[in-house]
Amino acid sequence: xxxxxxxxxxxxxxxxxxxxxxxxxxxxxxxxxxxxxxxxxxxxxxxxxxxxxxxxxxxxxxxxxxxxxxxxxxxxxxxxxxxxxxxxxxxxxxxxxxxxxxxxxxxxxxxxxxxxxxxxxxxxxxxxxxxxxxxxxxxxxxxxxxxxxxxxxxxxxxxxxxxxxxxxxxxxxxxxxxxxxxxxxxxxxxxxxxxxxxxxxxxxxxxxxxxxxxxxxxxxxxxxxxxxxxxxxxxxxxxxxxxxxxxxxxxxxxxxxxxxxxxxxxxxxxxxxxxxxxxxxxxxxxxxxxxxxxx
Length: 295
Hints:
Blueprint (H helix, E strand, L loop, with lengths): L2 E8 L5 E8 L5 H18 L4 E6 L2 H7 L8 H13 L5 E6 L6 H11 L11 H9 L8 H10 L14 E7 L12 E7 L5 E6 L4 H16 L4 E4 L8 H9 L3 E4 L5 H21 L6 H4 L4
Parallel strand pairs: 3-4, 5-8, 8-9
Antiparallel strand pairs: 1-2, 5-6, 6-7
């Protein structure tokens, strides 16, 4: 199976050349960053390029290559030695740290380049199906591959809301500093995934009992019985109390998945908007709880 690494070369004329590869061994994130860096440098050497700017979103790799950071991981020593040997082929080369949030375009292009159909006479779900049926991994599977297979073999849940107020997401914002005049420092938020309608309330702490009361008073009593509630993997949002409430009213409760960007994005957007609106309406830092119902 292997895990992919991606590199994009950008010419002075803004032409983009995409390179991808796979690693068929267990590796750390920093090892993968070095592998990608080496692929890019070797590609430029083959193209007989003599002047190169290397942009990496791993600060550790960049500062190690520049000699500004001590090498503590013995697994990275040979990587650094190889890169320093390769850069002798250039007349001029510089290494620059580029934060990941400023590297989105390159990441997107590289990901698209990597999304190529692999011809192996099996459908894409072959390894997942084989694991589900036989609990066996493929011979080439790394530890990362095995974890991915176990995750993909879990139960699948519906990630779209079929009608208004049937599926809600819940999350907690905070702790917020400074806390309000009444001691509140958290905002508990739920969003209907169909209408994008948001309900929220402030609390001193988001405990099992406050979540329980919120669900009954603000959600069930106002909008009827939802079919499903999703929550993040926080203890207070996955407590036995919530399980009891959901069981009592026959509501399905699931944890949100990092691989459901549409649902997670709706929740994150709601949280962001609440913070922005409350921030603009607040006259003093300690009265934001009074403005929350108007947000």
